[in-house]
User: Fold this.
Amino acid sequence: MNGRSFLFVVVGAVGAALLSGQADTIVTVVLFLLVLGSLVVIHELGHFVTARLAGVRVLEFGIGFPPRARVLRSAGETIYTLNWLPIGGFVKLEGEDGDDTDDPRSFVNASLAKRLTILAAGVAMNVVLAFGIFTAVALVATPYVGLQFFEVAPNSPAEKAGLQPGDAVIAINGERFEYMWDGRRTIIDGLKEHAGQAVTLTIAHADGRRAEVPVQLRDTSSGALGISGSDQPFKAYFPGEYTGHDLATALTIGADTTRGSLGLIVDGLGQLVGSVARNPTQAPPVAGPVGIAIQIGEVFRDAGPIMTLYVAGILSANLALVNILPFPPLDGGRMLIMVLKSLFGRRISVQAERLTYVVGFVFLFAFLIWITSFDIVRGLQGG
Assistant:
């Protein structure tokens, strides 16, 4: 049920292979295929389980895309296959293409509520997966994070304390700061709260050394510490240290992080639409498949497997939200067409429905090419 995911993963894997350094190419491509492929398989598993529960005949559940490598299991009415292209998976339902059939268990003959539920289940699975990932990270290994800066203002507390561009603040008076989205304070918040006071900062120098540095902060009107990211943006610094939480707190953090991630994605989509409307030749404020592939590799290399898992949670939420958009051939678009057909009956023919999906796929393909071109330019420029 998911040819669009095939296209997305192929573009990302090929582009990442072309743009990544030779030493990083294999790691980047393997991580991209593993992360995005797993998210797509989970998405399809939602369709599969819901279809089975709804009594709709499932002809095939495939891991990867054809050509087929082997049949894993063929007992019963469903065959389970392993396919050569490791880029997600698919579910094949009886009658999913809209053809009339006498089979009472075909997708096309199922009630509207059942068909909508089957389509929405993939989205729901990705939201649940994102929540599960965030909760697991919060429970076992919430990353501590620092703030790396690349500019020190003249005559500022930072300059007087001997701080250098490339250093990172990782604690204030021994207080560490967590990365997870749970409403906790950031290092910037901590500096503002201690404005005008003498504090001890734990600094990670660019060469890896750590030092406890006493600093007399000034008021916030000029910046309490006197660091900025005007030439280069501030960068999250991960010291490779983690903390865990009890189950109740982890569940709260997981829910907050899921909600926050979905909110960020909605904002990103709004910015994308605004950017395209204002100037379609300008680089969009989002990454395409190539950019995502490269970023996954960079996160794994710079921040480790825990943060890579965290990014997988964000991508799962992203996949859920994008798929529910009312645009053919996404799940949301198919749901919209089904609702319209239920309202207008046979005035929307199977041929018209299929044409809508084809046109939608062409637009989706063109959009991927457009956004990938900016990914490639950014990659070649080192962005």
